Glycosyl transferase
Amino acid sequence: MEAHSDERKYHPFSEHAADYIRSLLVKANPKNTLELIDCTDLFIKQPPIANMNTRFTPYAMLRLFADELPQIPDRILYLDDDIVIRGDITAFYKQNIKGIELVGVLDYWGRFFFHNVKTKRVFDYLNSGVLLLNMTKIKQTGLFAKVRDMMQTKKMFLPDQSAINKLAVAKRVVPRRYNEQYRLQKDTKIQHFTTSFRFWPYFHTQTVKPWDVARVHSVLHLHEYDDMLNEYLKIRDNLKE
């Protein structure tokens, strides 16, 4: 999908890159599949008008059309692209989600600032980078349809994440090991390289993405994934046309 706003132009994920990634997946396991889905028509029909010029690209919002795509199964695990899975998440994926719209982990910083009184919880604000989605329930409640409507009319700091947290009526909070957003822990299953706050030597935000290998080493002092990152450096040029 190609998209643009008054200030920016975005380019779609290419067929070439999809084909190359598919070849790697099938090589690892012949049962693996990858499908590139074009959401252009859906996006044009209901664009997030009020949030097109935020720091998040329109592609971050495409998951909100999942309820309109017949290819999407009843249960899906949504992952942001700055995620590293480092352990077995079978139990997380296969948990009972009857009656639940989505399952996620509290946003490390947002939990202190945002709250939905309807949940009757002290902390309830989920990070939307890792979400186990019950599409059957989401279609029943109309959650994503409501979020899309909100995105058209209300500008938000963290657009779809804010809307999902405000409008979800049945969500489950699980331990942070399934979406570690601050610092790698011994029991971390999924590490999420989000923008975070740091207080030393002065207060500042810090953003380091896993594909920025040099800064993973120099800023985070993290060498946990060197084998994988070295492999990435060898193949990344193959993703370009």
